[in-house]
Amino acid sequence: MRFSEIDLLDESIFFAVSSLHYVMRQKITWALEPLNITSEMLGSMLIIADKGPLTTNQFCCYQSRGRSTSKRIIDRLQQRQLIALDDNDCDKRVKTIRLLPAGEKLLKEGLQAIQQARQALEKKVGKQQLTQFMASVREMYGLLQDDHA
User: Domain HTH marR-type, which positions (predicted)?
Assistant: First the structure.
């Protein structure tokens, strides 16, 4: 294969995967819109529920985002009274994040909304076709990773 053919193949794969990614992100955004929550907020509540109670520093690490982005998400969740920031008895600079009952309820509703969006996609595309596509993507990823090992 010549270099230009490799570039064309790379462009085609990138376009297909990024287009699918964009559509999936849109479906998730639309599913969460009635709940007035973003996927970032939902993911953050999921981390807090799963790892919970955790310090703000731990939260930033689990988020794999910068402090300012994590702080912005924490502020939005706290303003909506979905989480609480508690003082640490030992160190007043440390805050512990925990999910409030309203946050637990919204988390369940958000996960249900995403599940319904996924079921609608499976119905439209076909569960078997979607499963085969995902298996192909994972296989291709594994093969490409093996080339660099």
Answer: 10-142
Q: What are residue 99's DSSP bridge partners? A: 83
- Bridge partners of 87, per DSSP, are 95
Q: DSSP string spanning the chain?
A: --HHHHHHHHHHHHHHHHHHHHHHHHHHHHHHGGGT--HHHHHHHHHHHHH-SEEHHHHHHHHTS-HHHHHHHHHHHHHTTSEEEEEPSS-TT-EEEEE-HHHHHHHHHHHHHHHHHHHHHHHHH-HHHHHHHHHHHHHHHHHHHHHH-
74-83 burial code (b ≥16 CB/10 A, e <16): bebbeeeebb
The confidence score (pLDDT) of residue 97 equals: 93
Q: Which residues pair with 54 in a beta bridge?
A: 97
CB atoms within 10 A of CB 15: 10
Say which residues have a Cβ less than 8 Å from residue 8's Cβ, sequence separation at least 6.
none
Q: Judge whether 70 and 63 are in contact, CB under 8 Å.
A: yes
Q: Which of 75, 77, 23 is nearest to 31 (CA)?
A: 23
Q: What is the model's pTM?
A: 0.77
**pLDDT above 90 (res 81):** yes
